[in-house]
Amino acid sequence: MAPPQGPRAPLEFGGPLGAAALLLLLPATMFHLLLAARSGPARLLSPPASLPGLEALWSPRALLLWLAWLGLQAALYLLPARKVAEGQELKDKSRLRYPINGFQALVLTALLVGLGVSAGLPLAALPEMLLPLAFVATLTAFIFSLFLYMKAQVAPVSALAPGGNSGNPIYDFFLGRELNPRICFFDFKYFCELRPGLIGWVLINLALLVKEAELRGSPSLAMWLVNGFQLLYVGDALWHEEAILTTMDITHDGFGFMLAFGDIAWVPFTYSLQAQFLLRHPQPLGLPMASAICLINAIGYYIFRGANSQKNTFRKNPSDPRVAGLETISTATGRKLLVSGWWGMVRHPNYLGDLIMALAWSLPCGVSHLLPYFYLLYFTALLVHREARDERQCLQKYGLAWQEYCRRVPYRIMPYIY
């Protein structure tokens, strides 16, 4: 007999039917984007002229390359870390420990790729393997999610996530049952969150840049901007890796197909969409427009990094001189809510910075196609949905204090708009 599950969280994403639909829709969308980017018309809203056969999707070489990539990132995860951080307190009052060595993994990966290229590694061949690589990544996500679901069957109740124990196998497979699935000290969710997908994203971008140089003699200015902007974003995420330990993904969501597919397949193969588009649809970009786009990205990054740093500094030490003078609201939990600084402008200023950067990543692709702006459209929907989830959880956690915060800071993401 199964142990009692306790109170269950409300179902999200449309419940079991919505989860079942997303299990099909997310991979289908990813493959549609890959096919659209390599097609002549590059239309976001039109079906591809033809669907690839199994021979175009399945490749033993791609499988070996993918497994080698995961193995390399796992090995780099296990190297000695510059710091080991503790996560949030769990239901059983314990705290898990996490190695902070993501940026180290990025640098070592760059060195290994550089050595490989100097030894003759054909990096420019990678863009032609994106379809089979995406296929094996998707298969990996399904198989891995099944393993996670089965592992959660024997996990103690205290190890389950708030939302992944509905009793419906499809919904729980999608959302994830166990909060922090581990084998010994290897944390699967933490590893996948920032390592193989994010570093893979910038590697794919680099391969597309090298391929463009091979085709046209040199990379375009637009390709340089996309590579530079997105490398900055990934490097920032890995440099501030410890901050992820307080995010919803780590503290609240179970590890199932939603995060597993998102981390290892969706991120590298859809977030590189602008570079994929530019390889086959080069866009002229003059220095004045490039300078304006750089300014937009700089503004977005300034807001994003400033808001996140202020929040993280306050969480670590509210007496820090950088945040000690900020106005706060006391809550019944003993914690305080920032109501000035970045967090007095809107409730989620980091999301605002994210969206401004997303616009800057798309602008080098011109305005003749909607496809490169998919990331901006998708990320807007994602952050609005995530903001709504944040609101519900904060209202439940902080009660009247959150209501007062919402009264003092009425705008959610965009000042005077939303």
Account of the 3D structure:
With 418 residues, this protein is mainly alpha-helical. It has 2 domains: 19-37 and 56-89 and 97-282, no CATH class; 287-418, no CATH class. It has 16 helices and 6 strands. It has helices at 15-38, 54-57, 60-77, 102-118, 130-152, 169-175, 188-194, 196-216, 221-239, 248-251, 257-270, 273-280, 287-316, 349-362, 374-398, 400-408, and strands spanning 84-86, 97-99, 182-183, 186-187, 328-330, 336-338. Strands 1-2 form a two-stranded antiparallel sheet. A two-stranded antiparallel sheet has the order 3-4. A two-stranded antiparallel ribbon has the order 5-6.
Search tags:
globular; mainly alpha; 16 helices; 418 residues; two-stranded antiparallel sheet
Number of strands: 6
Mean pLDDT: 91
**Largest β-sheet summary:** 2 strands, antiparallel
| Through-space gap between termini | 48 Å
Low-pLDDT parts are 1-7
Radius of gyration: 22 Å
Into which percent range does the helicity of residues fall? Answer: 55-70%
What oligomeric state do these chains adopt?
single chain
- Structurally, the number of domains stands at 2
- Compressed to H and E, one letter per element, the order equals HHHEEHHHEEHHHHHHHEEHHH
Report the total helices.
Answer: 16
What share of the residues does DSSP label as strand, in percent? under 5%
The best one-word shape is globular
Task: Return the structural class.
Answer: mainly alpha
Query: Can you list the strand order of the major beta sheet?
Result: 1-2
